[in-house]
Amino acid sequence: MLLSQLAQAPTDWPAQLASAPLWELHIDALQGTSHPLTGGWLVLFGHDLAASQLRQLAPLLALEGVQACLYPVTCLAGVPLLLIGTDSFSSALAAAIKQESWAIDICHLAHLPSLAEPGLLVMDMDSTAIQMECIDEIARLAGVGEQVSAVTAAAMQGQLEFADSLRRRVALLAGAPVTILDQVAADMPWMPGLQLMVDTLKQSGWTLAIASGGFTRFAGELQQALGLDAIFANELAVADGKLTGQVAGEIVDADAKARVLTRLAAERGLAQAQTVAVGDGANDLKMMAAAGLGIAIHAKPLVRAQASASLTHHDLEGVICLLGARACAEMRWHR
Q1: Is 150 in contact with 169 (CB distance < 8 Å)?
Q2: Are residues 100 and 129 in the same domain?
Q3: 98 and 147 within one domain
Q4: In a domain, 187, yes or no
Q5: Whether residue 214 sits in one domain with residue 168
Q6: Given 48, 105, 124, 253, which residue is catalytic?
């Protein structure tokens, strides 16, 4: 079948492709096959998933010499999803895909963790689990918002060493009443899909933790509300009902986040392939590199470029799409 003959809407594909369990994707056509490819994976998901993305993808596959086959279209977390198996993983193809503009989220991965087995997900908190930077909000209420947010932005883009940037920002909060923390905690907006992601992974026997350069006051709030297994964050020093402008204890920086993921996996006897790290800032990159799969969410360009997978069009429901893709598609193929 020529790609130009494929209906634009994925809901019409099953009728058109019913004559074969899988379909090889060529530069201008689909060809029926019964042999799955599992050397690498392409995951395409989004409400705008359409045949036009296959036509956009096919030349990139041909250019890099990557063979690919389509699994049946499915839907995860309410999002249409297409899993494509490849004969191998190509870093050049992954880079080429990131350079293109897509109406959906698309990732080329060497390995996909599976919800069919226990696993570990460690996530950042600020701008990942929640839709805000807590320190910026504390600073706004303390009257030093502009000074602190400028340092935060530079740190998240990798322009400043994280521990030093944190000390600089916290120092600006000296003398602020500790009740400000309660105000911020009461108004934390969760990232869309957070509850669904946590519930789905816990039902699958996964361990969930926060490793944050933010603060325990807010991470603890999320742990209690969501039933997270562990939190690792920084402690704001307090004296006489006011913030002292200092961080108590060791700072949770990029190295500490990576150690958290590695230690939790070892304690639970999990292979690296079943570990996932989710974050948005430069201080999440080492944690992502230590994980079997690193997922950037609404991330800075530096982080999108280095992360294995990047969520641009989706929130945390996109994590479910990535982790559920393989098992769901393979189940449909074996029917």
Answers
A1: no
A2: no
A3: no
A4: yes
A5: yes
A6: 124
pLDDT tens digits along 151-208: 888 877 777 788 888 999 999 999 999 999 999 999 999 999 999 999 999 999 999 9
Q: Which of 105, 126, 280, 284 is catalytic?
A: 126
- The count of C-alpha atoms lying within 13 angstroms of the C-alpha of 82, restricted to the half-sphere facing its C-beta, is 26
Tell me, yes or no, whether 268 and 137 share the same domain. Answer: yes
Give the chain's radius of gyration (CA, Å): 22
Residues 299 and 166 in one domain: yes
* Strands of 309-311's sheet in order across: 242-248, 230-239, 207-215, 120-123, 275-279, 293-297, 309-311
In a domain, 317, yes or no: no
Range of the domain at 34: 3-110+327-333
**203: exposed, middle or buried (C-beta count within 10 Å: 0-12, 13-18, 19+)?**
exposed
Domain count, the chain: 2
Q: Which two tokens stand for residue 70?
A: 């389509």
Alpha-carbon distance of 124 to 219, in angstroms, equals 10
The DSSP H or E segment spanning 41 is strand 40-45
- Residue 20 shares a structural domain with residue 95: yes
**pLDDT digits 0-9 by tens, 127-144:** 999 999 999 999 999 999
pLDDT tens digits for range 49-104: 999 999 999 999 999 999 999 999 999 999 999 999 999 999 999 999 999 999 99
Percent helix / strand / coil, the chain, rounded to 5? 40, 25, 35
Look up residue 334 and give its two tokens: 């074996």
Specify if 115 maps to a domain.
no
294 — pLDDT class (breaks 50, 70, 90): very high
Percent of the chain with pLDDT over 70: 98
Task: Mark whether 126 is an active-site residue.
Answer: yes
